[in-house]
Amino acid sequence: METSFNEAEKKKNIRLALGVASLGFLGFFCIYLIFIGAIFLFPHWFFSLFPFPSLSDDVAGLHGKLLIFSKNIDFRDRDAIEGPPKELATLRIYDGSSLSDAVKVKQYSSFYPTESKIYFFDRGLYRTFDGEKWEEYKNDSIGSSPRGAVGAGSVWVLSTVRNRTVLNLISDGEVKEISLPDDESTDKPGICTSRIVSDGNSLHLFRKSGSTVSWDRYDGKGWSQHQTFGGVGRYKVIAYKDRIYFVGSPGYGRESSLILRIYDKGTWSEPKDIRIRDTLFGSTPAVFNGDIIIFQRNFVSIKYYILGEKNENAQGPFTIQSSFPFSGGPARFLCLVFLPYIIFFVFIFSMSALISKFKLKTWRSGSEEYEFASLIRRALAKVIDTIVVTSPVSVAVFVLFRRGDFLDNPFLFMGSILILITSLILGGFLYHSLLEGVWGKTLGKKLCGIVVLGDDFTRCTVLKGFLRNLLRVIDCLFYYLVAVVSLAGTMKWQRLGDIAAGTVVVRLRPEKSARL
Known about the structure:
Elements: H1 7-41, H2 43-47, E1 58-62, E2 65-74, E3 86-94, E4 103-105, E5 110-113, E6 118-122, E7 125-129, E8 134-138, E9 144-150, E10 155-161, E11 164-171, E12 174-178, E13 194-198, E14 203-209, E15 212-218, E16 223-229, E17 234-240, E18 243-249, E19 258-264, E20 267-268, E21 272-274, E22 283-288, E23 291-297, E24 301-307, E25 314-322, H3 329-358, E26 362-365, E27 368-371, H4 375-402, H5 410-438, H6 443-448, E28 450-454, H7 462-470, H8 472-475, H9 477-489, H10 496-501, E29 503-507
Antiparallel strand pairs: 1-2, 2-3, 3-4, 5-6, 6-7, 7-8, 9-10, 10-11, 11-12, 13-14, 14-15, 15-16, 17-18, 18-19, 19-20, 19-21, 22-23, 23-24, 24-25, 26-27, 28-29
């Protein structure tokens, strides 16, 4: 004969469920309010937890060292009232064995490396840096968003002046405006997709329109050459030893995704494939220790390849830095990961103590008396099972992050993450459903001494196991608040999945373990 209950006991459970729901929603409302307030009032603290890639890939070799310039979003000393965050420019130096700490530098629109100095162009001025000393030169002819190139005793600047694209030659304190080539096929592309480089006395102008790059050469008297390159996505150009190196990328994720063209002695070479996979943040040609290199950065690493003398095969990659993908390192990342679990356990422990104080804990069926599994035992069992299910996926994620090209290709990255999430959800569902349906308990429930039975205290079936776990997606809302409210309001401590499947979770007594 089963335990009977009166209306007073039923009403007490309903009041308990309402109290748990009210406390839970109030607590989580306060947590979310604090969370949202922290984003607006302390954005630096919040966004420092997450990785923000550099907004630039400016890199240049100077005196045997590789200078890496980064532009990041600076959230320090900013809040929602003051306005949006500012951009921060920094410099790090790689000496061939180690990478220095970041040093703040002044903002710039573009830069141009030479063998002895690096020129930084900004509105109305340009600065030079020789590795030790900074110098600044102001000139009103330098408009907004300038792109510059340095020739023999002269500086070329392509910028916007009075809403007009202007090319100026600055030499010996004098400014001479150079008319741009008249090319209707380029459809007047903007400065942001244009590049200029100088091989000494000549200027090379590259302008991009769609997937076509137009090249023109100025020899000091006029524009004497013109050529177009098709099928180009992103591209970069540098000048070195009277040569112009043009590196283009037709798209992401291709095995032969970089194409190299070299301008030497008045002609362009045939395009050559460089066996380097392009990255999400681009591939930048540069000069380092007398070699032409391809510099690449992604979320987790900074690396480079060396182009051979015949430019047929690339050597590398050579790793400059391989870091943890989240700002602050593994310690901060672990704090971020475990913070929700801490909130979960505080909530579960508090609710378990409250429910156990006011709720009927046992149920008699015939000659047997069963004790319902407490909320804290069920929560601990769930955590253990989560660790068991996620362990293989965690190993897969670790292996993928160890690969240098995993985050280079956004399609590979998103596809892999989607597969891993699907495997995690499907694997967890099958793990719980089959083990509970066949044996009545998972590894976590076995270690915590609890078992799943039918609501008539007979063995659980596979069908019931599948049904009770199918509704877990609803029970787990708000850190399992829905499940806790249901458990508090039902006589047999049942969450929604248990009610739908007709199951209960009880303590597993030692003398009954052999039969169950």
